Protein: Signal recognition particle receptor FtsY
Amino acid sequence: MAETKPDKPGFLSRLFGRKADPAPQPDQAVPQAGSHPVAGGHPETMPSPPTTGADDLTAAPSTVTTASPDTAEENKTPAQLAGADLQPVEGLDPEGTNPQEPLPRIVTETGPELRPDMAAEAVPAPEPPPAAVPLSPQPEPARGWWQRLTEGMRRTSSSLSDSVTGLFTKRRLDDATLEELEDALVQADLGVPTAMRITEAISAGRYNKEISPQEVKAILAGEVEKTLQPVAQPLTIDRAKKPYVILMVGVNGAGKTTTIGKLSQKFRQQGLTVMLAAGDTFRAAAIEQLKVWGERVGAPVLSREQGADAAGLAYDALQEAKANGTDVLLIDTAGRLQNKAGLMAELEKIVRVVKKFDPSAPHATLLVLDATVGQNAMSQVELFQKAAGVTGLVMTKLDGTARGGILVALAAKFGVPVHFIGVGEGVEDLEPFTARDFARAIAGLEG
Ligand SMILES: Nc1nc2c(ncn2[C@@H]2O[C@H](COP(=O)(O)OP(=O)(O)OP(=O)(O)O)[C@@H](O)[C@H]2O)c(=O)[nH]1
Structure:
């Protein structure tokens, strides 16, 4: 549920009286940084912040797994560890010793490609998964991205669709209707400025006339697409940077580790070599989870023991990746809470250390956002931007919420590129973000 609707001028007064005022202030009335609890996390169990500076880089030795698609069977990670540690938000066991911590959920992948223009193509027949990955007895038939996207976003789109249908069936477009529509859009987390823009677009030339729900949805989709178009940017790997360093940040449980796995798979399918750095040294299980992904996608994983200095690990990983001529290095980081200054300082330290090795790195800093946190995503963007200089967003779990509209609010407010969206736990459920598909899915329109 969205929060209390912020104060805003009545629709008619905005439409006729104050249209010249373009300042998109209302978003600031939406609850902001620090006003919500962060999803998950156990502040009292967080490790003490690391010392500052990049001088303590010679701690424990790192280990590198040598995963490759040809890894011998006996050397593979046991199946029971595959994807371990997948419910970090509630009941998180920072020591990684809780026998109750859920085992990995494995989903058979079907391997779509990275390019947005291929997103809607039919998914190729599933390849046999590595032996370490148990097959479900009845693999689901491959579904195209559009189908997964619309199914995943059903909760968001049906709540919007229901409002639109309820409001516009055999009813004239009057002030009250528009007011209610605006409320529904704000409730769906699209943000007040976007909600106002959409209602104004709908009312233009149609005031006091009948308008069908379908027409409203089409205008809604058009306006959402306009807002999203500038941020829908593919993640482009610059082959001249070797390794191309991607730092993954986000609060715990947002889906960073899983996203790293899914991205690695896409890079590998493009023929790129990938190395993973298990920079979430906070939890042993997170390190294991990354190793499993490394095995699955054929990417070596550089790790140290739990509690080791993450910045030192990142430095080692850079050296290793450089020495090996690796194309892409993905650095995982611990789940961080924005109100934990020490943890943010650790993130800043990782960035500093990476820059020491290569001033142009990290070449991309991707903030993974869990769509289910709704408006709290706004404050996460602000804080991670400060700590790490976010260059792009990945939004996960759009399938688990009616608050998918938050992506529109983020686009309107920050203009940070959105590279990928996730609508499920499977490898194939993460795809490059395209404005039109998302806009039509959210409006409940056919592709
Ligand atoms: N439904 C759904 N679940 C997802 C999606 N993306 C990730 N998840 C799940 O979210 C959970 C948390 O993912 P992780 O990758 O462990 O999150 P994390 O950010 O690395 O968490 P920490 O290791 O605690 O920092 C896992 O169960 C994932 O399978 C998505 O798009 N949809």
Notes: The pocket of guanosine-5'-triphosphate is lined by residues 86-88, 105, 250, 252-258, 280, 286, 334-335, 396-397, 399-400, 422-425, 429 (CB under 6 Å). The first helix runs from residue 11 to 17. The mean pLDDT is 74.
